Every structure is written in structure tokens, then in C-alpha cells.
Amino acid sequence: QVQLQESGGGSVQTGGSLRLSCLASEYIYNKYCKSWFRQVPGKEREEVAVIDSDGRARYSDSVKGRFAISEDNAKRTVYLQMNSLKPEGTAMYYCARGLNCGRRAVFLWGQGTQVTVSS
Fold this sequence. Notes:
Layout: E1 4-7, E2 10-13, E3 18-24, E4 33-39, E5 46-51, E6 57-59, E7 67-72, E8 77-82, E9 91-98, E10 106-109, E11 113-118
Parallel strand pairs: 2-11
Antiparallel strand pairs: 1-3, 3-8, 4-5, 4-9, 5-6, 7-8, 9-10, 9-11
């Protein structure tokens, strides 16, 4: 069964950077939506960055201009470069695959990696 595994989380200070990676255990059809979500306790999982079926990157307003999503198909890996991190970016970050973009279309989740941003 295919799995997604995130890595790269950790603790940084405000203004710092992290790069998250999401490795697929085997090839996944490339036209599925590739996405990054984040979640804090008591709140819904929020989609922050996607690569859609046309290969276009899109971002939530909360991270636009600071985060960048990219992929390396040869390595079966999707990345999330996070710059100018803010304390409100503290969350568990999950990568996902979906038939379309958006939480309801997700059929595969990773286990998550914790990001903590201190002020």
C-alpha cells in the first residue's frame, strides 16, 4: 500500500525557514493533486499549498509570498519551502494526494511533521 512520509519539521524562530519533504513509497499517478495541509489542535486541517493536475502551484492567502511548493518526480518527493515563518505557522504539517485539490478530495495522507515557530 502506497504511503506518504513527511520530514523536515522542527523548531525555528520567527523569520526563519524550513523545508518540508514528502516522500511517496512508490509511484503515484502524477495528475492527482499534491498538497500540504496544516492543523493546530481544535481547528480544522487547513490547505496551504497545492500543485494541481495542470501542474500549477496555488497557495492560501496566509502563506502566499512566503511558502513555495515544488516536486521532484524522479525522487517521488514533494517539497514545501517555508520562509519568513511566523508563530501562527506552528502546526502539524501533512502532505496529501487528492483526486482534486481540497480536503474532501484527499484519499491519502501522510502522518505529519511538527513545525514550531517561537517568537
